[in-house]
Amino acid sequence: MAPHIVRWGIMATGWIAETFTDDLLIDPNVRDASDVAHQVVAVASSSSKERAEQFISARGITTPCSAYGDYETLVADPNVDVIYVATPHSHHYQNARLALEAGKNVLCEKAFTVNAAQTKILIEIARKKNLFLMEAVWTRYFPLSVQIRALIQKGEIGEVLRVVADTSFGDDVETKWGTTHRMVNPDLAGGALLDLGIYSLTWVFQTLYHTLPRDQRRPPTVLSQMTPYHLTGADECTTMILSFPTSTPSNGPHPQQSHGVAMTNIRVSADPDEKGSAGPTIRIQGTKGEIQVFGPPFRPESYRIIPKKGAGEIREVQCPFPGNGKGMYWEADEVARCLRDGKLESEGMPLEESIVIMEVMDEVRKQGGLAYPQKIESTEYPLQL
Ligand SMILES: NC(=O)C1=CN([C@@H]2O[C@H](COP(=O)(O)OP(=O)(O)OC[C@H]3O[C@@H](n4cnc5c(N)ncnc54)[C@H](OP(=O)(O)O)[C@@H]3O)[C@@H](O)[C@H]2O)C=CC1
Ligand SMILES: O=C1OC[C@@H](O)[C@H](O)[C@H]1O
């Protein structure tokens, strides 16, 4: 059967727009995805049309692809099925809303928006207009994540009661990020939490929350600490303890909670020698054993299952990236399948779960005293950026 072809419009021409587009251009057959295919039919840069043209030629796109010097023209392009929003966090609400208001489906980079209030409005608009909307949490669509969720659901390590995840870079923050880069710039909703902490939260949520039947998923309580970066006030370190109510079986005593410890830091690293010597970045601990995940939590490369003593052998699983891709093609394939099947949201990253995670980050910022400028926390539209 012919693959379902999805026509992408790329909004912005920065680093991740390049990476995502390069992945879109990899033949899906190399990852055994013969049911879908991707075409990049338009690219827009808010800086200039020339920048969009350069982006297209640098990627070697030879199929017809329009270059635009503003986002408004992109979202009006009738050839585009779905817009990929690849701007800084501060701009997601504004840019995704622009696309939705124009009647386009949207895949929006993480963190979805600056706060939960903005996320809720995007979802309301998408639902009202019958449009597909998804937060681009690519890691959830890796075979590694899918396999680990399935292992948990089939009880491989028993009941999962604690998860520890650390997404931390050991950067010389002042030299590498300065004060204006989006990583640390409050005007762009920078900081460790929204940029990297969201991956630690992804692991906590996809193991302790998403693996439960929908009607048993309950938002966690949160305790956290935040360290501001002295030059900008955005967080350089955030540590969170999340407590989820567990489902209570009728037989016998039972723990009432599972705990997630989600860490992020841009000054100390989870993997200082970048060879994994520091051990797993994620530990998923159950009553019958543990799953350990290796590599950066946003792009892990392997995991191992350690059964409880006497219950079997350790199993190591390598998870390669076919075609030398970054791994963003799996989320793109998911978008294509959802559009093909008329689904308005993805089961792997439900909109309800995006809201709960944004609410957790709102609470963590409240506890840590991190408020972004009102002009980007606002829900007015358009924002006064
Ligand atoms: N999934 C993942 O692995 C990753 C996700 N990300 C996410 O992607 C988003 C973008 O990150 P990244 O590509 O690294 O950022 P970059 O700074 O490299 O690119 C952002 C682009 O957004 C556009 N833009 C529009 N308005 C502004 C503005 N006021 N200031 C800066 N840029 C603006 C620009 O493109 P133009 O001028 O063409 O309009 C710019 O090139 C973030 O949400 C980030 O969290 C980032 C890295 C990895
Ligand atoms: O989403 C991300 O994942 C990869 C990191 O390098 C990047 O800073 C972050 O935005």
TrEMBL record:
The keyword Cytoplasm does not apply. GO terms for molecular function: D-xylose 1-dehydrogenase (NADP+) activity; nucleotide binding. Its EC number is 1.1.1.179. It holds the Pfam family GFO_IDH_MocA. The keyword Transmembrane does not apply. It catalyses: D-xylose + NADP(+) = D-xylono-1,5-lactone + NADPH + H(+). Keywords: Oxidoreductase. It is an enzyme of class 1 (oxidoreductase). Residues 7-134 form the Gfo/Idh/MocA-like oxidoreductase N-terminal domain. Residues 147-291 form the GFO/IDH/MocA-like oxidoreductase domain. Belongs to the Gfo/Idh/MocA family. This is D-xylose 1-dehydrogenase (NADP(+), D-xylono-1,5-lactone-forming). It comes from Penicillium roqueforti (strain FM164).
